[in-house]
Amino acid sequence: MKKIFTILLIVLLTVSLVACNANNKPTKNNIEKEQDNIIDERKENTTEEKSQIQVEESSPKADYEKKEVILYFVNNEYINTGDENLEKLIPEKRIVKYGDISLEETIVQELIKGPKDDNLSTLIPANVKILGVEVSDNTAFVNFSQEDLYGSSMEETFTINQIVGSLLELDNIKRVQFLIDGEKAESLMGHFDITEPFESLQY
User: Fold this and answer.
1) In sequence order, what E strands does the chain have?
2) What is residue 199's predicted lDDT score, i.e. its pLDDT?
3) Would you kindly state where each structural domain of the chain is located, as residue ranges?
4) Cβ atoms within 10 A of the Cβ of 107, count?
5) For the whole prediction, is pTM greater than 0.85?
6) Biased composition, Basic and acidic residues: where in the chain (predicted)?
7) In the 8-state DSSP scheme, what is residue 127?
8) Is the distance from CB of 167 to CB of 125 less than 8 angstroms?
């Protein structure tokens, strides 16, 4: 009796192990489903990447233009010696990029940045703020903010002459009118009359 019971127990254990292995063994259908899921995920990722690239390519890009301009900077030798026989302003050619702001305003901003030549300098005070430069009827209207607009008589004279000389190099500019906060004013920094537009350098 014990022998029969033992045989039955062994048979049951064997059947149970076989059934477990059968359930745990991946079927062909399961493998194919997993492969399909992986392929679908890759397709989705690829589609998302392509969509992102298309969005980036279709995004509007800023339209920039380049132009060689002539900028006038102060001759350091004149400043150091005061020799009236020397050139006070010396031209420096530079290629500028513009688009967000006008070419005329770009020129003024480049003058504020200063020259590349160590023998030259800019006397436009770094703290001045340009509100904009607009052109109408061949006149460039250079609009300064009143805030922090101060300097010596030399700084004011060269600020005016550097800007006037550089803007008059453009074919479309015949005159330069300075404004403060959008209005005509008597002077930029209290030393020089700016009520009328400039058609040439002033010393």
Assistant:
1) 65-75, 89-98, 120-121, 130-136, 139-144, 175-180
2) 95
3) 2-58, 65-180
4) 27
5) no
6) 30-51
7) T
8) no
151-168 CB burial, b ≥16 within 10 A, e <16: beeebbbbbbbbbbbbbb
On whether the CB atoms of residues 121 and 88 are closer than 8 A, the answer is no
CA distances from 124 to 6, 86, 152 (A): 107, 20, 10
Tokens of 63: 């339209």
Distance CA 180, CA 148 (A): 12
Per DSSP, what are the bridge partners of residue 93?
Answer: 70
The mean pLDDT value for 117-145 works out to 95
Kindly report the backbone phi and psi dihedral angles of residue 75, in degrees, each rounded to the nearest multiple of 5, phi listed first: -75, 115
**To the nearest whole number, what is the mean pLDDT of the chain?**
81
Report the C-alpha gap between 164 and 150 in whole angstroms.
18
The answer to whether the CB of 69 falls within 8 A of the CB of 115 is no
Give dist(CA 28, CA 16) in Å, integer. Answer: 22
Query: Worst-scoring range by mean pLDDT, 23-37, 99-113, 122-136?
Result: 23-37
- 54-92 pLDDT tens trace: 544 444 455 789 999 999 999 999 999 999 999 999 999
